Every structure is written in structure tokens, then in C-alpha cells.
Amino acid sequence: MLISREYSLLLLLMSGATYRISALANYYGVTARVIYYNAENIDKYLEELAKDKYSPGPMSLQCADGCLKLGGHFPDNRNMLIGRILDDARYEIALSQEERQLELLYRVLTGKSIRIPDLTEEFAVSKSTVLKDLELLREYFSQRSVQLKHTAGQTIPQSDEFSVRLVAAGYMAHLLNVNHGFYRMVQETHIWQFRPYCFYLHCMGALSFGRLAELIEESASDIDLPYRLLCNCLCGIMISMIREQSGHHLTVSRSRMEFMANLASFDAARRLVEKINFYVPVSTPGNLAAFVALIAAGAEESTGFKVYLASRIDFKILAANITAEICRLAGLTPNQKLIEEVQSEICRICIGGRGCVEHENHDLANMIQNDYEHLWNAVEQGAKPLCKLMNHPLSGQQIGRLALHFVDACEVIKGAVPAPQVLIVCNSGLVSSRLICRKLQSLFQIKMLGCVSIYEMNHFLKNHSVDYIITTVPVLQSDTAVIQVNSYLSGEDLGRLRRILPPRSVQDQLVEQILEAARESGAVTDPEGFAGRLETILGLPAKERSFLHAPGISGIIDTRNILLDFPCNGLEEAVRKSGLLLLQAGAIDPVYVEEIVENIRHAPEYMLIGDGILMPHSRAAEHVFQTAVSVIRLKTPVSLNDSGPGGIRWIFTLAAEGRTGHLTALEQLSQILAESWMMSELEQVCLPSQFKELLDKFVAINNQKERGGDVVD
User: Fold this and answer.
1) CDD domains per the record (predicted)?
2) Which residues are within 8 A (CB) of 690 and not within 5 positions of it... i.e. 6 or more apart?
3) If one looks up domain 2-94 in CATH, what number appears?
């Protein structure tokens, strides 16, 4: 008996193609270890299948070099074997933890019986497992002020219908996102054996899941609907239809309905409900539209106080005042379109409060703060009336979304020619994407839209206009121009980009001011004074002065953290040793060591930054005390898929304390890796002190080149 993911994986392998373990793990939203475990179960299933008298012959999974392939004898009519597998998937299927909890949620929403002995037998699990699943369900609801009362074999939610639906939709979205459930339900052909789809069929009938997702995107084409809110809308609609069919009707008061009509998402929700009504009868279209509009606006579970507050506020006047103040501080000109956009954003903030669901791309707000700091400060200052109204300050994501509406106005004021819109696509976006963003923005006149994972790329492209995709991972199909680069942007990569992207231009007047400041400072003999003048000219606050003195690569590599010709039995041992060097230096705590080892164990190929060069790192910044890098040169290269013909030779382990303080060092490291002569000399050094001297020499030569002087060896 297999779980739905294992049946799905087996049907995928029936094509006869070879799949990388890492690609399968990314597709199903699990670790590579889980895929290996699933493969073992599938192999056992195939052994049992071969014993059947109608079996075409022995088959088995072949696992080699990090890849999976189905081997053995295939019948001439492959459809016969697929039919047999699908029959087993329909009647002999085990439930995952998320699928069991979805079944329990369905029973709670419909008032069906929940008896422990019956569930134990039906789910084929122990009593303690069922009790644990029920406890997780109760805990999620109770944390959101909805109590579940168990009586007479039923579990009944104790709250108003509005809150029950919101909490249930949030819980369902959480369960489906665990294993990329939404993506699989839209993309897979043989989907009905996936338990959440069975859940879906209970309420939506002829309207397929993929078609419902298309209807939502079509209806919300004029508003910015992030991927997570799209998923929440899908769940909210399903939950609402289930509750309606079970006799639980939603009533929206007149004052609340009037408030909903001011939301930009309400018109989109109303169009969506009209389209759904063609497939599935909707008893109260207006109430369902109001509910979906709240979810699309980013509502959290406790909306009562926000709606009460909103009914006593004229959002149009508030938006006009805030827009006028922000424009005054930023030197912009307000207009009607800008006021309407700000009004819609203020509604979203008021409904969502502290816990509103934002776009999954957290780097977007950071980029706005870095690239338009004057505007960011203006928004932060101008939005104070809204903070007073909400009784708490705006989050960084909320300021970023509000500032985003003013960015176009800033570009017009600058008189800039529309720059190409660039999207960075990578795996995790922790180190390489920030480095690429910083380097590209320093060299080219481009508009950086953000950094997304390969999994989020297609959805991002549906909602944004992108001129170029710059990616560090393979992109198989895209209508947008794709430029694949190395994660450290080699000289060859930059050469290709220079032929495509316009170079960054600096205003002549600004250059003259900087040169004048340099002359008056006496050839920069007073760095602090020179930095102060630049801050005045560029309009930078004093707190940003530190970026002018960010440590280089030589400053964060200590000779104690350099180990040359280290003998090891495997990659994991070498990475652990590199972490221990930083631990002994007091740069990190033991948790960070385990984090990087776990990352290497699950996805080592995503830590490659060059041929034979690995950079282990982790997001666990709270376990880092100071920015540092350890260096290990292995005595014998360790084999790793896609690491180059010679295997892994160098390991540079990064511990980054801040968000950007390490980027100057990483930029210098990327320049070192791009220079073959430098790597050749590093291969020859015998002592850590020689390694450090060579780094200092390279940085000095590079600085001399940037100043335009002659390089003296």
C-alpha cells in the first residue's frame, strides 16, 4: 500500500525517463531523503506486482548518481500496467498526516461522525496517531479563538460562521502547502487518487481544480494577487461551498457589506462568483463574494475590530491626506490614480492588521528600502496617521507595499528611460541571489523585480511583465528571454550580459560633485569626512555610512579558519570540520554547524558556486555572532554530482551576521574565483599565512585597477 505521492511518482517514472532526485524533491516539496524513502516503498510494491500472474515481468527502480529510473520489462501495451496501478491507487492507498487531517477537517465542517475506533480502522493507523491528528486540529483552531466541542460523536466549531470559514481555509491552505499540494493538483494528469482532490470533489463537482485556479487568476487580473493569497482564495471557496451544502449559511451585515464594496478585491471576487455559478449553484453570491474579497485582501482570522473600525473611517480622505504628505516629503506630485491605489492598500492593511498575508518574496521590500531609501523614509513618516489609527507601527512588508505605488512616480521624476525589467530565479535566494542583485544593479541600468525560486517563477510571470530572466538554475520552458549564469557571475557571464543590458549611467553633475568632494578631502585622507560629504550629496542618512567601510574578503577570513590539504572520508565530514573552525573562533554556535551539515546532506548541488568550489551556508542568522568565512582545501577532491570533473576541492563556509555586511567580501570572492591565475596560485600555497597574503595581494591589485592606476607586482 502506497501513499498518494508514491503512486504519483510511480506514474511519473512510467514514462521511462530518468529524473534527478533533487528535481523530484523540489517538485513534491520534500527533502531528497523522503524521495529515497518513497523509492524504497515503490520498489517493494513492484516486487509484489511482479508476483501477479498478469504481470508483464519483473521491474525495479534503478537509483544511481542521484537519479531515478524505472528498469525492467515493459509490456507492449503500457496502458494496461498503468491501469492496474491506478486501480490500486483508488482502492489501496495509505494516507499521509496532512491527508488524514484534511479528512478530519471535512468531517468537522460537515458534522459527520468522528469516533476514534472507526478512524483507527479507516486510516489504518494507531489510536495515538489519530489522537495526535485531532489535537493538531484543535490546537490550530483554538489559537485563533475558535473552540472545537466534541459531543455525541461529533466535533462542532463554537464561533460565528465568518470566523469558522476563515480559520478552516487557513488550516487547509497550511496543509496543502506542506507538499506543494496546490501545484500538484493543478499540474498532474492522474490527480484523483490524491486525497485533497477527493476532498475537493465533495463540494465542487464538475468544476475542476485547475479550472477554478484559472477563474481566480482571470477575475483578479487587475489586482496584484500574490501566490499565497491565490491559494487562500481556493481554500476559502471550497470551505464555503462545503459549509453551504451542509446547511451552514453565512450572513454578512449591511455595514460590513458596504465596507467590502470599497475594496479593490470586491469587484474581482464578484466576477469570480459569477463564473463559479455557471458550474456550481451558489445560493448567496453576494455573501460569498464578500468572504472571498476579505481573503484576497489579506484578512487574518480576527477581522471583527478592523471591520468595526473601518465602518467609521472615510478611507478616501485618509488616503488623499497620506498620499499628499508622502509626495510632499518625497518631492513627488500626487494624482487621482495614486490616491486610489493608496486607498486600496490602506484597506488591505486595516483588514490584515499585524498578521496580514504578504507576498512570499520578502526581498522585494528590502530592495525598495535599499534603492529608494528617501521614498521609504517618506512613506514611514507620512503613514503615521495610519499607524495611530491601527495602534501599532507598520511592518516592513506593509511599508514596502505602500512605497511600491510611489516607485513609478520616482522614476518619472528622475526622467529615466524605462529600464529592462529583470527577474532573478534561483533555488533559495540567500547568498547568490543577493550578490547577483547587488552586482547587476551596480553595473546595469535595470529595474530589479525581485528574486523567486524556480517553483514560484511561472506564477510570478503570470502577474508581472518581465523582460529578462537571469537564473542560476536551468529553466526548461519560458516565453521570456532567459540568461543562465554562474552563481558567482564569471567574466564570461558579465560579457554576455553587457551585450544585452544597458550600462548604468551616472549624472555628470553628480560625478563633478563627488570629484570636488574628493579634492577638498585631500585625496581621501579623511575617509570619515569624505563619507560625510557623500552622504550629504547623495541624500543618505548617517546610519548607512557603514557600507563605505564594509569588510572585504581578507577582513572576514582569519588564518585560524584556514585549513589546507585536509584529509576526509566524505563531504559531510569536511563541511562539519569547516563549521567547527568557525565555532572555535567564536563566530557561530553549535546549532549553525548542524544547520549547514543538514543543508549539505539534503541539497549539496545548490551550494556550488564554481567548479569544485562549495559554499555551505544557512538562513539561521540568529546563531551567528560575527560575519566570518572558513576555508578548507581538501587533500583529495570529494565526488559530488555536477561539481565538475575533479569533484569538490575547496570549501568556503559562510556565516553572515547581518543582511548586507558580507556582500562586499562575497563580491571580492567571486572575482577571485573568476580569475584562473589566482586559483592556480591558491593551489600552490602551503601555509594559511601564505593564503592570507595572496588574498591581500589580489585585493590590492583589484583596488588599483578600479582607481585606474598602474598595477605594480
Assistant:
1) PTS_IIB_bgl_like
2) none
3) 1.10.10.10
Of 250, 288, 282, give the one whose Cα is nearest residue 266: 288
Residue 523: pLDDT band by 50, 70, 90 thresholds?
Answer: low
Closest-CA residue to 461 (of 441, 482, 446) = 482
Closest-CA residue to 210 (of 220, 200, 202): 200
Which helix H or strand E contains 41, and what residues bound it?
Answer: helix 32-50
Q: What is the pLDDT of residue 698?
A: 80
Rg (CA), the chain: 29
In sequence order, what are the beta bridge partners of 624? 588
The string of pLDDT tens digits covering residues 585-617 is 888 888 889 888 888 887 677 677 777 888 888
At 618, the pLDDT band (50, 70, 90 cuts) reads: confident
| Cβ atoms of residues 165 and 236 within 8 Å | yes
How confident is residue 188, by pLDDT bands cut at 50, 70 and 90? low
Say if CB 484 and CB 472 are below 8 A apart: yes
pLDDT of residue 263: 67
Higher pLDDT: 600 or 221? It is 600
Specify the residue for cell string 555536477: 642
Strands of 481-524, DSSP E = 481-484
3-class SS of residue 239: helix
Strands in 628-638's sheet, in edge-to-edge order, are: 562-566, 628-638, 648-655, 613-614, 608-610
The CATH architecture to which 313-412 belongs is Orthogonal Bundle (1.10)
Predicted TM-score (pTM) of the model is: 0.47
**DSSP element (H, E) containing 424:** strand 421-426
Long-range CB contacts for residues 23-32, cutoff 8 Å, separation at least 24: 24/68, 25/602, 25/603, 26/454, 26/455, 27/180, 28/179, 28/180, 28/184, 29/177, 29/178, 29/179, 29/180, 29/183, 29/455, 30/5, 30/179, 31/602, 32/602, 32/603
673 touches 609 (CB < 8 A): yes
Does residue 650 contact residue 632 with C-beta atoms inside 8 Å?
yes
CA distance 328 to 574: 57
Cell numbers at 561, concatenated: 579558519
Query: Where do the structural domains in the chain lie, given as residue ranges?
Result: 2-94, 160-309, 313-412, 421-498, 508-549, 553-707
pLDDT digits (tens, 9 = 90+) for 458-470: 888 888 889 999 9
In the predicted structure, residue 381 carries a pLDDT above the cut 60: yes
Cβ atoms within 10 A of the Cβ of 621, count? 13
Beta bridge pairs of residue 562: 631
Phi, psi dihedrals of residue 461, rounded to the nearest 5°:
-65, -30
Give the model's confidence band at 401: pLDDT under 50 very low, under 70 low, under 90 confident, else very high: confident
131-161 pLDDT, tens digit per residue, is 999 999 998 888 877 888 887 778 888 888 8
Number of residues that make up the chain: 713
State the CATH class of domain 421-498. alpha beta
Per the CB < 8 A criterion, the answer to whether 483 and 471 are in contact is yes
Q: Which of 71-80, 343-352, 554-563, 566-575 has the lowest mean pLDDT?
A: 71-80
Q: Pick the more confident residue, 350 or 499.
A: 499
